[in-house]
Amino acid sequence: MLNPNDWSTRKFWDEWLDHIQNPGSKNMRYYKSTIGQVEIAVYDEKAGDGTNEINPNHARYTAILEEAWPERISAYALGYDNGDFGNFEISIRYKQWHEKGTRKQQPGFGGNLATNNVVNAETTFGPH
User: Fold this and answer.
1) Maximum separation of any 2 CA atoms in the chain, in Å
2) What residue segments make up the domains of the chain, in order of their start?
3) Which residues have CB under 8 Å from 74's CB, separation 6+?
4) How far is the C-alpha of 36 from the C-alpha of 48, rounded, in Å?
5) What pLDDT was estimated at residue 76?
């Protein structure tokens, strides 16, 4: 997952978790109001035109997670040097998944992409 220096990716996941459980009241929302669709795409290091620009239309492979929600997010490690890379992990639960452009569940019963329908994604921050 790419993350720009404005932290928009981290803010997105934090806000989704805050939507599921209000941090002030600790009240939980109902399932249907907390789920969404998540796309996980894999790209080549270099774009097809030889640049480093990522074009969402040129992914090598894209998986779609249906009825997905973030389960937890790890702490973010900060460094003193602006050139330091930091990262955090996101665990995503989901009901089923399929390859983009198909409606076929993958693989087998319930479409598990990972044990217990959990995907752990790691995001890296750094200079771009």
Assistant:
1) 50
2) 8-125
3) 88, 89, 90
4) 30
5) 76
> Whole-model pTM above 0.90?
no
Decide if pLDDT at 17 tops 70: yes
The DSSP string of 48-82 is TTSSS---GGG-SEEEEEEEEEEEEEPPPPP-SST
Q: Average pLDDT of 82-95?
A: 75
Over 80: is that where the pLDDT of 82 sits?
no
- The sign of the CA dihedral 70, 71, 76, 77 is negative
- pLDDT > 80? residue 55: no
Token pair for 67: 């009825």
Cα dihedral 17, 19, 25, 27 sign? negative
Compare 107 and 97 and report the one with higher pLDDT.
97
CB 63 within 8 A of CB 98: yes
DSSP code, position 110: G
Element at 8 (helix H, strand E): helix 8-20
Is the model more confident about 78 or about 13?
13
List beta partners, residue 62. 41
